[in-house]
């Protein structure tokens, strides 16, 4: 596989976030040649149409747009808050879907998440799939990485230790690499 840049949008600002730990696991399990970097969503202002309609987006939003454009794909990692996507991730997706050439439109993506709840991030990912469809983002369909009871799936150092979760995450990243390669062949 040629070199592939993947931008991770981690939908939790919590310092000890399971989704931040999931990002680190993704970096560890990524196929050879895939490089994952995370964008700090804490930098983004809340979405405001007045700022959107201004001559230029706020600088952190411009930085997000550049980072998405430079990436071959995005990895969306979200906890589940109130049966949905985190507000932090939704805010980033709203900003990245704006402009004359929205950087997320058509961008290959994969979604995963970890939560301390019993159903993991199943409902949040259902909403993420709807959002990605609205943005015309091709999304890796399976496997679904919906890590439930996250407290038991990561060790004290923050490493993902659950073998099934590791297997599914690795397969998801391989699927993302395949999706990027397929789309690049279609563009030729």
Number of helices: 6
Q: Rounded to an integer, what's the Rg over CA atoms? A: 16 Å
Strand segment tally = 5
Order of strands in the sheet with most strands: 2-1-3-4-5
CATH superfamily: Flavodoxin domain
Please report which band the strand proportion falls in: under 5%, 5-15%, 15-25%, 25-35%, 35-45% or over 45%: 5-15%
Distance between the termini: 17 Å
CATH top level is: Alpha Beta
Q: How can the largest sheet be summarized?
A: 5 strands, parallel
Low-pLDDT parts are: none
Work out the count of structural domains: 1
CATH-scheme architecture: 3-Layer(aba) Sandwich
Shape: globular
Structural class: alpha/beta
At the fold tier of CATH, the topology name is Rossmann fold
What would your notes on this structure say?
40% of the residues lie in helices and 14% in strands. The protein has 188 residues and is α/β, with parallel strands linked by helices. The protein has a five-stranded parallel beta sheet, with helices on both faces. It starts with a strand and ends with a helix. One of its GO terms (molecular function) is FMN binding.
Concise overview:
The protein is α/β, with parallel strands linked by helices. The protein has a single domain, classed as Rossmann fold.
Topology, pairings included?
Blueprint: E1 4-10, H1 18-29, E2 34-39, H2 49-52, H3 59-70, E3 73-77, H4 87-96, E4 109-114, H5 122-134, E5 145-147, H6 163-187
Parallel strand pairs: 1-2, 1-3, 3-4, 4-5
EC number: 1.-.-.-
InterPro entries: Flavoprotein-like_sf (IPR029039), FMN_Rdtase-like_dom (IPR005025), NAD(P)H-dep_reductase (IPR050712)
Organism: Calidithermus terrae
């Amino acid at each position: 596989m040629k070199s592939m840049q993947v931008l991770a949008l981690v939908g939790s600002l919590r310092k000890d976030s399971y989704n931040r730990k999931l990002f680190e696991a993704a970096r560890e399990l990524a196929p050879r040649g895939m490089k994952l970097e995370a964008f700090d969503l804490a930098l983004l202002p809340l979405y405001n149409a007045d700022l959107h309609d201004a001559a230029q987006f706020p600088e952190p939003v411009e930085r997000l747009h550049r980072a998405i454009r430079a990436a071959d794909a995005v990895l969306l990692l979200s906890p589940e808050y109130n049966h949905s996507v985190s507000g932090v991730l939704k805010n980033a997706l709203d900003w990245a879907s704006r402009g004359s050439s929205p950087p997320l439109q058509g961008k290959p993506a994969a979604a995963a998440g970890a939560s301390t709840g019993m159903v993991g991030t199943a409902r949040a990912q259902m909403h993420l799939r709807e959002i990605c469809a609205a943005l015309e983002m091709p999304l890796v369909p399976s496997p679904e990485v919906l890590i439930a009871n996250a407290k038991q799936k990561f060790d004290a150092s923050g490493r993902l230790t659950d073998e099934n979760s590791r297997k599914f995450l690795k397969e998801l990243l391989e699927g993302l690499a395949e999706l990027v390669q397929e789309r690049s062949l279609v563009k030729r």
